[in-house]
Amino acid sequence: MYRRLIALSRSFSTHENIFKQYLKQAEQIAEEEKKKAEEVKIDTEQLLGPKESGLIDPALKYLKATKLIEKIIKTKSIERIQLMIEDALYDVSKNYKEKKDQEEDVLKPMELVQKLTELWVERPDLKVLDVPSASIFRTILISSISENKGYFGKFQRITKNEEGEFNPFFYGEFSEEFCKNMIKGIGKTAPGVRVIRRVIDHLAAYDIEPSTELVNLIVEESVQGRWPKVLLTTLEYAVKKRTKIPLETWSKAIKFFRFCSEHFDKASICINLAIKTGVDPDYDLIEPLVAKNLKHGRIEEAKDLVSMLRKEILNRNRVNAILVREEQAKKTVEVMKKFINTLLDARKPKPAHEYYDEYIRDPYTNKISESYEIGFKLYQDIGDVRDGIWLYEFIKEDKKFEWNQKLVTSLLKMVNEFGKPALEAAIDKAQQIFVNKELYSTFALNLLITYFGRHEVWDQLQAIVLKLLETKSEVNKYTKLTLERQIEKCLNPAYKRQILDKVKLIEFPEEVPEEAK
To answer: Coiled-coil intervals in this record (predicted)?
Structure first.
């Protein structure tokens, strides 16, 4: 009995201690909340300034008069906070609509939005439930206009074929920053398309010219959200307002339409809009449509797009006629090169061959070394020995044309693939590179050594070795290794020894590491 009384006494003592601890914690929490409330009050007073201050801006003056900050801090419900901000914006919008033509420095809704956004960042106590201010403003922007609110007028929407009412909460022009805050990151959200439509319609209603950055952002979010109509409407409006849109943005939009089966035709509209705005006619503009047409076997349609782009390049005016011709030639050749690569990627070597053949045989096209490089590479890839050699002879007949180092290398790469039928071209270039030093390169030299050794043309290989000794032309650390490997194939011991003795007289750079052999 005595033991039970002692146990019961200890139990009461334990519960009493626990109760005291809870009571102490409650007192500490109450004290902290009181202290925090006092700090908030002091911060708010410092933020809004004294009553007699004449330096306070209209937005802060309004916040102080309505005590909106204090109300937001005390409220724990997001819905309630939204309603309070909504009422404040409506009040400011109504006042601005009535007095904007009569008084100066009337508070605008955008000024209040900007100030609230700043405070949301600066004041931790305003970050209710970690909800960003942009989220609240987006909700207000797309909320149904209440019947209690006044009528602010109508306008014709551009994102939909219907009339819309001016938003009673954001009356007046949107700021650039506000538009970006509303749009950024909404591409993958359910209400995103409604937000972006409201922003675009509002810009059009007030005839505002969107910036390049804003258009880029709208395009990016529209692609993310897969909103083709909104995307095209934005681009058309931006073109109308003469906003400068970069090539990358056009390419992104066109590529997006290429994968929208129901809106594939809009890609062509985008190309025309881009060219209309003066964007540099680049192959990237048409590549998505070209690839799509090739995928479905519409080769002529793809060629028409390339022809259109080439004509646009030729129609662009420049001041200096000579520079124009060179610049146009380089651009048209670049377009041709990319188109041929697209054809080859689509496994259509025959159309690629036909297209290049048509270009190279046209007497009116301005041919440059790059256009011949494309031909050598094409014939090498598809293994067309006859036309590859024909192209070499075709260039050779043009006495005014000057070869360069890069073109010589392209030819020798093709020659190595073609073998004995291209022997004449190899011998010709082996002689020329030692006569014209501008054509000489160690890469071309090593290609010739490889060719003559692989096809056992030992007299030509020996001629190269003698020329190296005579002219003391540049060699690299791989030239010796290449020579030794090819000479090793020679089955005539005397001839082999004779060539190797000459090779030993050539001064080579440091030895090639064993792992490279």
So the answer is: 20-47
| Local structure of 160: helix, strand or coil | coil
Which H or E run contains 163? strand 163-165
* DSSP symbol at 506: S
User: What does the H/E/C string look like for 357-419?
Assistant: HHHHCCCCCCCCHHHHHHHHHHHHHHCCHHHHHHHHHHHHHCCCCCCCHHHHHHHHHHHHHHC
- 300 forms beta bridges with none
Query: What does the pLDDT look like over 396-410, one tens digit per residue?
Result: 998 889 999 999 999
Q: Where are the domains of the chain?
A: 57-208, 280-402, 422-517
Helix ranges (DSSP H) in 241-295: 247-258, 265-276, 283-295
Residue 284 burial (C-beta neighbours within 10 Å; 0-12, 13-18, 19+) = middle
| Closest among 138, 340, 122 to 221, alpha carbons compared | 138
Enumerate the β-bridge partners of residue 383: none
Whole-angstrom Cα distance, residue 315 to residue 300? 22
Q: Is the pTM of this model over 0.85?
A: no
Asked whether the beta carbons of 427 and 460 are under 8 A apart, the reply is yes
Q: How far apart are the first and last CA of the chain?
A: 98
Which structure tokens are listed for 45? 């007073």
Distances in Å between the Cα of 260 and the Cα atoms of 111, 215, 264, 342 are 40, 20, 6, 20
3-state secondary structure of 2: helix
Name, in order, each residue with C-beta under 8 angstroms of 466's C-beta and a sequence gap of 6 or more: 502
Backbone angles phi, psi at 154, to 5 degrees: -120, 160
Residue 464's nearest CA partner among 440, 491, 489, 497 is 440
Which pLDDT tens digit goes with each residue over 87-140? 999 999 999 888 877 877 889 999 999 988 888 777 666 655 566 788 889 988
The whole-angstrom separation of Cα 245 and Cα 104 is 36
| Long-range pairs, 374-377, Cβ under 8 A, ≥24 | 374/333, 374/336, 374/337, 374/340, 376/407, 376/410, 376/411, 376/413, 376/414, 377/410, 377/413, 377/414
**Reduced to 3 states, what is the DSSP secondary structure of residue 165?**
strand
Task: Please give the structure tokens belonging to residue 250.
Answer: 């056009």
**pLDDT tens-digit map of 454-480:** 999 999 999 999 999 888 888 988 898
